[in-house]
Specification:
The complex is a heterodimer of chains A (about 270) and B (about 270). Chain A has ten helices and ten strands. With about 270 residues, chain A is of the alpha/beta class. In chain A, the strands form two sheets. A six-stranded mixed beta sheet of chain A has the order 6-7-8-3-9-10, with helices on both faces. In chain A, helix 7 links the parallel strand 7 and strand 8. In chain A, helix 4 packs across helix 5 and helix 4 runs parallel beside helix 6. With about 270 residues, chain B is mainly alpha-helical. Chain B is built from eleven helices and two strands; from the N terminus they run ααααααββααααα. A two-stranded antiparallel sheet of chain B has the order 1-2. The radius of gyration of chain B is 22 Å and the shape is flat. Classes of the chains: A alpha/beta (about 270), B mainly alpha (about 270). Bound molecules: adenosine-5'-triphosphate (ATP) and magnesium ion. Adenosine-5'-triphosphate binds next to helix 2 of chain A.
Chain lengths: ~270, ~270
C-alpha cells in the first residue's frame, strides 16, 4: 500500500478579483439523504461565500452533522448537488478522488478524534506528509507555527491523552489547519468541553474567522454564533427552515419553529 | 507485576509437586532409578540429539515449528482479517467463508490432509525442492491458526472507536492507509494478549505434528520408550507434560499481565 498520494487535479485557485469572491465557495442544492428508510435531509440548499462564516443551528437530530458530512464527502448523497470550489462533491466516489477535496475542506469533531498513539506534533504532521506527500521538514515548521497560534507551544511531544479537553480540541483545530484547507467544518466542537474550556476554543475559532478562513459551524453557542457568523441557517427535521444574518434571525424570527427553538436555548 | 510473579512461582511449585506425586505413586520404590534413566534422555528429548550437538528434533523442533507456523499464520491471518472487513462483498464474503472453514477444521484432520495434499517435492525454477514433514507440519498447524488470528484482527480493529476512522478519512486517508497508520497501531495493545493466547494454543497443538513424521518431542519419546522399555512410558510422558507446562505457563502469566495493563490504561 502506498502512502504518498499525488494530488489528482489542481485545487481551484483562490478567487482574486472582487467579482469572483462574491461567487459562493460552497453550494448545496436540493440535497437529499436517507439512512435506511429514514430521510434525514429532505432537500437542503445553502451557500457559503469564500471567507464567509456561517452557523447551522437546530434541534438534535435535525441533520446538522449530516449536512457537514455531505460537504466534505464523508457521506454520499442520494439526490441534489454539492459543490465546493471546483469540486462536484457528489460525483467523487473513490477514496482516491476524494483526497484533493479533503485537502480543501478540513473538519473538527465534537469528540476531538485525535490519534491517541501519536504525539501532538505528529498528529499535525501525519496527514500532510502521508496523504499530501509534502516534505516533513516543511510540514514540521508549519505545524510548530500552528501550535503557537492555538497557544500550545511546549506541548509538541505530549500525547493527546495527557491534555485537557480544551487543549485537545485546539490540537484538533491545528491539525485541520495543517492541511492548509480553504474551508473548515466545525461540528459542535465545544459541546463535549467543560464550561471553563469553551472560551479558549471559541477564541481560536474567532481568530480564524477574522483572518478570513471560510468556516461552517454547527453550534449550540448562540451568543458566539451571533457574534461571528455572517449568516445563520436554522434546520429542523431535515430542511432549512429559515436563514439570514444573525441580527435579524435572532431578533425577529419568522418561523414558529425557530421561535420555539430560540425560546428554549436563549 | 509482583502479584503475577507470585502466581507464577506458586503455579510452578504446585504443578511440580503434583507431577512428582504422580510419579512416585506410579513407580514407588523404583522412582529414583527411573528418574535417573529418564533424566539421562534429556538431551534427546530436548534437541533430538544425544549430546545437544544439533537442535533438529525433540522439543526444539516443536518450538521451531510453532514459531514458523505462528509467523505464517500472522501474515495470512492479517490478510484474511483485512479481507473480512473489506467494504466489497466480493472480497468480504469469501474471506469470512474461508475463515469459518479453517476455524472449524480439527487440527489433526488438517495435518493429515497436508500429508496427502502437499506433494513430496515441488519444482521451483527447474530444481526439485523436497517438502519435508516439518514443512508440512508447519503449514498444517498454520492453517487453523490463520483463522484465529483473522478473528483477533477483526476484533482488535472493531475495538477502535469509529471516530478514528472518520477523522482519518476527513484528513484524506484511504482505507488501507487508515488501517495501517491509525487503526492497527491502536489495536495492537488489545490484540497482543489474544495473539499470545493463540500462540500458546498453537504450541500445545504442535504435539500433534507427530502424525506427519516429524521428529518432534513425541516421536523422540516413542523412540526412547521403544529402546528403554514400556515401563518408562509414564515417566517420559510426565516429563513431556512438564516441558509443555514450563513453556506455556510463563506465556499465560505474561498474557494476563498485559491484559491487565491494557485495561488499566483505558
Ligand atoms: N450513519 C448513520 N446511520 C443511520 N442513521 C444516521 C446516521 N447518521 C445520522 N443518522 C440519523 O440521522 C438523523 C440526523 O442526524 P445528525 O447527526 O445529522 O443530526 P444532528 O442535527 O447533528 O443532531 P445532534 O445535534 O444530536 O448532533 C438522526 O436521526 C440520526 O440518528
Ligand atoms: Mg450532530
Amino acid at each position: 500500500m502506498t502512502d504518498v498520494q499525488p494530488i489528482q487535479g489542481q485545487p481551484a485557485p483562490k478567487p482574486q478579483t472582487q467579482d469572483q469572491s462574491s461567487a459562493p465557495l460552497i453550494e448545496l442544492r436540493d440535497v437529499h439523504k436517507s439512512f435506511g428508510s429514514i430521510e434525514v435531509l429532505k432537500g437542503v440548499s445553502m451557500s457559503v461565500r469564500d471567507g464567509g462564516v456561517v452557523c447551522i443551528i437546530g434541534p438534535s437530530g435535525s441533520g446538522k452533522s449530516t449536512i457537514l458530512r455531505c460537504i466534505n464527502g464523508l457521506i454520499t448523497i442520494d439526490r441534489g448537488t454539492v459543490r465546493v470550489g471546483s469540486f462536484a462533491v457528489e460525483t467523487l466516489k473513490k477514496d482516491k478522488e476524494l483526497v484533493p477535496l479533503r485537502h480543501e475542506v478540513a473538519m473538527v469533531f465534537q469528540q476531538y478524534n485525535l490519534f491517541p498513539h501519536r504525539t501532538v506534533l505528529q498528529n499535525l504532521t501525519m496527514a500532510p506528509v502521508q496523504v499530501l506527500g509534502e516534505k516533513p521538514a516543511v510540514v514540521r515548521e508549519r505545524a510548530l507555527a500552528l501550535l503557537a497560534k492555538v497557544r500550545l507551544t511546549g506541548k509538541e511531544n505530549a500525547y493527546p491523552g495527557e491534555l485537557s479537553g480544551g487543549q485537545q480540541q485546539r490540537v484538533a483545530i491545528a491539525r485541520a489547519l495543517a492541511m492548509q484547507p480553504r474551508v473548515i467544518l466545525f461540528d459542535e466542537v465545544t459541546a463535549a468541553l467543560d464550561p471553563e474550556m469553551v472560551s479558549e476554543v471559541l477564541n481560536v475559532i474567532r481568530d480564524l474567522a477574522r483572518e478570513g478562513m471560510t468556516c461552517v459551524l454547527v453550534t449550540h453557542e448562540m451568543r458566539f454564533a451571533q457574534e461571528v457568523a455572517d449568516e445563520i441557517f436554522f434546520t429542523d427535521k431535515g430542511v432549512i427552515v429559515e436563514h439570514g444574518p444573525p441580527g435579524r434571525l435572532f431578533k425577529c424570527p419568522n418561523d414558529p419553529r425557530l421561535k420555539a427553538f430560540l425560546d428554549k436555548v436563549l | 507485576m509482583n502479584a503475577h510473579v507470585k502466581i507464577f512461582l506458586v503455579g510452578v511449585l504446585g504443578v511440580t509437586l503434583v507431577l512428582v506425586a504422580l510419579f512416585v505413586a506410579v513407580y514407588g520404590a523404583d522412582s529414583g532409578a527411573i528418574l535417573r534413566g529418564v533424566a539421562g534422555r534429556t538431551p534427546l528429548l530436548l534437541s533430538g540429539s544425544a549430546d545437544f550437538s544439533a537442535f533438529e528434533g525433540g522439543f526444539a523442533a516443536n518450538i521451531v515449528i510453532s514459531l514458523w507456523a505462528m509467523a505464517l499464520a500472522a501474515v495470512a491471518g492479517t490478510a484474511l482479517g483485512v479481507g473480512m472487513i473489506s467494504q466489497s462483498a466480493v472480497i468480504r464474503g469469501p474471506s469470512v467463508l474461508v475463515m469459518n472453514v479453517l476455524r472449524n477444521s480439527p487440527w489433526l484432520v488438517v495435518l493429515y490432509a497436508m500429508l496427502y495434499l502437499l506433494p513430496f517435492e515441488v519444482r521451483i525454477f527447474g530444481r526439485f525442492v523436497e517438502i519435508s514433514p516439518m514443512i508440512k507440519a508447519t503449514i498444517g498447524l498454520a492453517l487453523p491458526v490463520t483463522a484465529n488470528i483473522a478473528e483477533v484482527f477483526r476484533g482488535g480493529v472493531g475495538s477502535v472507536p469509529t471516530g478514528q476512522w472518520e477523522s482519518a478519512r476527513a484528513l484524506g486517508y484511504r482505507r488501507l492507509q487508515i488501517l495501517r497508520r491509525v487503526v492497527v497501531p491502536q489495536a495492537i495493545p488489545i490484540m497482543t494478549p489474544n495473539l499470545m493466547t493463540t500462540y500458546a494454543m498453537l504450541f500445545i497443538g504442535s504435539s500433534l505434528v507427530v502424525v506427519t513424521g516429524t521428529h518432534d518431542v513425541l516421536s523422540v519419546a516413542r523412540t526412547v520408550i521403544a529402546s528403554d522399555g514400556d515401563h518408562v512410558a509414564t515417566a517420559v510422558y510426565l516429563y513431556i507434560l512438564y516441558l509443555f507446562f514450563l513453556f506455556c505457563f510463563p506465556i499465560a502469566i505474561l498474557t494476563r499481565w498485559l491484559e491487565q495493563r491494557v485495561r488499566v490504561r483505558k
